[in-house]
Amino acid sequence: MKTNYHTHTRRCGHAESRERAYVEAAVRQGFDVLGFADHVPMPYENFRSPIRMQPEETAEYVDTVKALREEFRGRITLHIGFEAEYFPALFDDFLRMLEPYDYEYLVLGQHFLNSEVGGRYMGAAFDSADTLDALVDQCAEGLHTGAFSCFAHPDLFHFTGEERVFRSRMRRLCREAKACGVPLEFNLLGAGLGRNYPNPAFWEEAAAVGNQVIIGWDAHSPAWLERSDLEAQATSFLDSLGLRRIDSLALIRPRPRF
After folding, report:
1. Residue 14: partners with Cβ closer than 8 Å, 6 or more residues away
2. pLDDT band at 72 (very low <50, low <70, confident <90, very high)
3. Fewest beta carbons less than 10 Å away: which of 140, 153, 214, 216?
4. How many CB atoms lie within 10 A of CB 79?
């Protein structure tokens, strides 16, 4: 099957187009499944995020994808999800905020250490092993909540210190994901834009651990779903490492713990 569970919309402020354009592009490209996972709204106080949808946009997002699911039934399967960080202080609050909506899954996309507000963006270069340890701890705690259907771009962290340090921490992270039954996402956006991820050293460690891997397009424009060249390159690379690729996710809808 040809699937993608990582699709954004204009609501996050750094992607193009409405949902319909992505669905039409996916149908043209022969996708069987398209999952929307736009950046989740967060119940911040006195802070309006520039990189995610706002709480007041949630209902429209969910209702739009539900309507398209009915319209395109028989041609493509659509799913409704969110890409979410694990911020411990806000985790249960944002799950409660999402509870009234008919979404189906979350993907863990950890961009920040601690929180978006006052935290550190981990796609920027850093060389502190202590910072890397703290980040792995935070991700591991998030994985163990059982709330996430996959771990998006798990190698986004731009660590520029010693490779042996990076490999040892990433092997631990891969082991935590495997223990929790959470597949890792090989991210085509990073590959296509020449970012620091996908990181071959990370995926060598994932191969040693034996993680399951799903390819994620991380589409921020409908045209990105046309990049079959990136899919072919990713498939060849993952196969060369002997990594087990999957094409569908077990959709987990988490409930607030309190």
Report:
1. 8, 51, 220
2. very high
3. 140
4. 21
Cα distance between residue 65 and residue 5, in whole Å: 13
Q: What is the distance between the alpha carbons of residues 28 and 114, in angstroms, rounded to a whole number?
A: 40
- Residue 254: per-residue pLDDT: 95
Angle, nearest 10°, between helix axes 129-143 and 163-179? 10
In the chain, where the domains are located: 3-246
C-alpha torsion 118→121→124→128, nearest 10 = 70
Q: What pLDDT score was predicted for residue 257? A: 76
144-188 pLDDT per residue, tens: 999 999 999 999 999 999 999 999 999 999 999 999 999 999 999
What is the rounded CA–CA span in Å between residue 33 and residue 166? Answer: 34
User: For every residue of 200-246, which 3-state class applies, written as one string?
Assistant: HHHHHHHHHHCCEEEEECCECCHHHHHCHHHHHHHHHHHHHHCCEEE
Global model pTM greater than 0.85: yes
CA distance 176 to 139: 9
pLDDT tens, 12-23? 999 999 999 999
Q: What CATH class has 3-246?
A: alpha beta
Closest among 236, 245, 112, 124 to 185, alpha carbons compared: 245
